Amino acid sequence: MRSSHRSFVGVLLAATAFILYTGRGLPPIVASHFGAAGEANGSMTRGAYLAFMLVVTVGLPALVVFALDATLRAGTRFINLPNRDYWLAPERREDTIAFLLGQNVRFGTLLVVFLAYTHALVVAANGRQPPQLSSGAMLAGLVMFLLLTLLGLVRLVRRFRLE
Questions:
Q1: Which residue has the higher pLDDT, 21 or 69?
Q2: Are 20 and 50 contacting, i.e. CB atoms less than 8 angstroms apart?
């Protein structure tokens, strides 16, 4: 397993531990959905919420990273890039695949961190009576996630353009 994948698995394990540890303090019925102003408008049992958060925060990014990894390693027929033939020529193929794998792991890690951050906001919201999500903190996290995703896309496009 590549070191970047080992690090990603470490992030997944840390997120799992974080969700389970912080989830122990949640009430039996968790406010789990919030309106734009942060008011709770949906709930579920603690067990259902924790299962959902583990699937979304750990399972979804793991699926994205490892499925794309398998696809990239399966052959070049599934790879769609600008200037595809140039970047997948035998002399550049290994570097191209390594770059795509690295970008994928970075995005997966970013997704795990954002979703764990969202969980932390839900935990904090459930500590208030009535439950209230910090809209400003959620917006800041979302803007940061989108900005970093955009920067990754710019990096990807710049890497595969021809001068």
A1: 21
A2: yes
- Summarize pLDDT for 56-103 with one digit per residue, the tens: 999 999 999 999 888 888 877 888 888 889 999 999 999 999 999 999
Instruction: For the chain, give every domain's residue range.
Output: 3-159
Alpha carbon of 74 to those of 48, 68, 155: distances in Å?
Answer: 36, 10, 24
CA distance 154 to 163: 16
Of the candidates 83, 84, 65, the one whose C-alpha atom is nearest the C-alpha of residue 75 is: 84
Long-range contacts of 143-149 (CB under 8 A, 24+ apart): 144/114, 145/110, 145/111, 145/114, 148/110, 149/107, 149/110
Q: pTM of the predicted model, to two decimals?
A: 0.92
